[in-house]
Design goal:
Layout (H helix, E strand, L loop, with lengths): L1 H19 L11 E5 L10 H11 L3 E4 L4 H4 L9 H12 L3 E5 L7 H6 L26 H18 L5 E5 L12 H14 L4 H8 L23 H27 L7 E3 L1 E2 L8 H4 L7 E4 L10 H13 L5 E6 L18 H11 L2 E6 L25 H20 L8 E5 L1 H9 L10 H9 L6 E4 L13 E4 L7 H12 L3 E5 L21 H4 L1 E2 L3 E8 L11 E7 L2 E2 L3 E5 L9 E8 L2 E6 L1 E3 L1 H15 L12 E7 L5 E7 L5 E4 L5 E3 L5 E2 L4 E4 L3 E7 L1
Parallel strand pairs: 1-2, 1-9, 2-3, 3-4, 4-5, 6-7, 7-8, 8-9, 10-11, 10-12, 12-13, 13-20
Antiparallel strand pairs: 14-17, 15-16, 16-21, 18-19, 19-20, 22-23, 23-28, 24-27, 25-26, 25-28
Helix pairs in contact: 9-14, 12-13, 15-18
Length: about 700
Amino acid sequence: MKKVLLMMAGWLLTMTASAQGENKVYQFDKPLYGAAYYAEYTPTDRLDEDIRLMKEAGLTVVRVGESTWSLFEPQDGQFEFAWMDRIIDALHKAGIKVILGTPTYSIPSWLAAEHPEVLSQTWDGGQSHYGIRQNMDLLNATYRRYSERIIRKMMEHYAQHPAIIGYQVDNEVEARKIDNPDYFEGFREYIKQEFGGDLKELNRRWGLNYWGMNINRWEDFYDRKGVTNPSYKVWWERWNRKVTADFLNWQADIVSEYKRPDQFIMHCFMPSFYDIDQVEAFRQMEYPAINVYYTMQNGQDGQWISYSCDFMRTVSRSHNFLITETNAQGTGWSSRNQWPPYDGQLRQNMYAFLSGGANMVEYWHWSTLHYGQETYWRGILGHDGKPNRVYREFQRGAKELEKIGDRLVNLKKRNRVALLFSHDSKHALDFMPYTDRDQYKVNMMYDALYRQNIECDILPVDKPEMQDFSQYDMLVVPSLYVATDELLRKISDFVREGGEVVMLFKSGYTDYDNAVRPVLAPGPLAEACGFTYQEYSSINKLPLKPNGIGAADNTVNTWMEFLQLTTAQPLGTVEHQFFGQWPCITENQYGKGHLIYIGTVPSTDLLYKLIARAADRKGIAIVERQYQFPIILRSGTNAKGRQIHYLFNFSYEPKTIAWPYPASQSLLDKQSLAKGQNITIEPWGVVIGEEK
């Protein structure tokens, strides 16, 4: 009883302080550095030992609770919190901050046994069973009722605990092919609303007369199983994204009823998730989060980290975000892909996240599991629970953050280039592929920017609020296959007003319903592109005729559009007796700007040169492009208004380069850095300079 009274007194003091002063969401004064922590997973009680090791390592934050519904509620209506109280109280005593998860992504066995209807059915004919996580129908009323109850019980119990700085709602949520009857009925109602109940309009826009698939009564609207119509399928994916966003916002609303003003709400997703609307899902979250796993050892290049950060900044209200999971050692649901980091790589990647705007880096997870599906998804500690090489490298990074973290936190960026990402186009190209390989070449386009040290923002342009390009000088556009006329006009206007655009094939081909426009391609883009076309062909690898682009690998492959020029100038034409009749790469001056259109799949080097050609006209990243991968440069403005520059060496050999920026101080060793001064970056190392 005494313990409870003391705890309540502590909570009361925290609440009073908040009311008197800090009545706003949690503010980061330094980046947080930590790991997911699951004391309930360890075969022996080692809570005290774990916390001792955490303190010695300099760990500042842990994430708990998102997988523990079955422990919080072992039987229907029986709630037990004492086991977690012990963990959070001990962490608080040690000064370690806590993010508490709602446990809705892994349902307890009694719920599946008593209410099997909560388990998901899938549109490809599957039926989920108990024994794995994320096996539920997100719209099921029973699942929602029980989820709400456990969330409210948890919040009633924990909301005022002084250790808790934020709440994670669910975990890595996505639709996962759900097609339960209620889920389909929701889709039907969604379409009915979107089309104003007009079945004739629906049949017309989706072309449902084809194969006699037209719908004459809403009661006859058929579910996703077996559907071949591309319009139906792209709208179904929009529904999936809406459901996941609505589900997260529903949870956020519940948590908001209880949380303190100084606590935040977050959710984490994977950068490869394409059936979640990140803009809408994170609308209520100041610090959204992402789980980033990447290749280590010789394959470590920082690209996936950078891509994830560039995406997260644009969907975050604060333009800062959290990393809730990333590699500590080897990963995988088996032991086949064990690639732990070389010396220096863990620390290097921590700084790579911070250079993109992250305010927290957490590893998944603290200690390696001894049982379960992720036995070989290794944490900071190994199976023996003892300090090791990775632990010591974490410790080194943590000590550095303690000294210089206030110079690195809350980094802001003002990039001049935007890469336009389209969920709709990605799905639509997958539905009707043009190759046996990757259909939506966003990674290819991003890589051409990244390896040339051209920083960018990633805009999910299916959302109208992401279609303001006024702050940018250059747009890079992977195949914008599905797009509204309005979006295409905005891109055209951007060029006319002086912007530079590099655009990939198949852009502008279908409308918002994923139906091919009944006009010459590229439809509304024709004037800005300076050509039209009717024909296209699959191709093998073909050389281009000599041109002024200067690519060492002057080849194209896979796909080619037969571009018939109006105002555009040819940049690339293949050496071929037939295909050589038409250019496949063009450049058009339109108004004050230019649009480079790549109507084929270019070689890597050719794409780099085309990107650089557009960047040169705007003077973009001139300094940074003196260097290319494995030297990667990232910059931003810190909370003190100073320019921060990160220089990474993603290789196993030391690299000596000239400091390319104004006079700065090296934050890691306090040395002065003069412009043009030679500096050496160690293998898998980083130099961080703050301008004076």
